[in-house]
Amino acid sequence: MMGFTPEQVDRMSLWTFSACLEGYAAAHGSEKQTEGEPMSTDRMRDLGLL
Questions:
Q1: Where are the beta strands (DSSP E) in 2-50?
Q2: Composition of the chain by helix, strand, coil, percent to 5
Q3: 25: which of 14, 20, 30, 33 fits an S-S bond (Cβ 3.0–4.6 Å)?
């Protein structure tokens, strides 16, 4: 899953493992995506998208 061997996990504190798990989950898209306001037409023009 995260690439740690069982021995490495055994040597980790619960806090360390939890931090690794949280980081792994965030890096692989498990965090909820928040929806913001749609991009304005003017902003799209500024970025060269229109």
A1: none
A2: 50, 0, 50
A3: 30
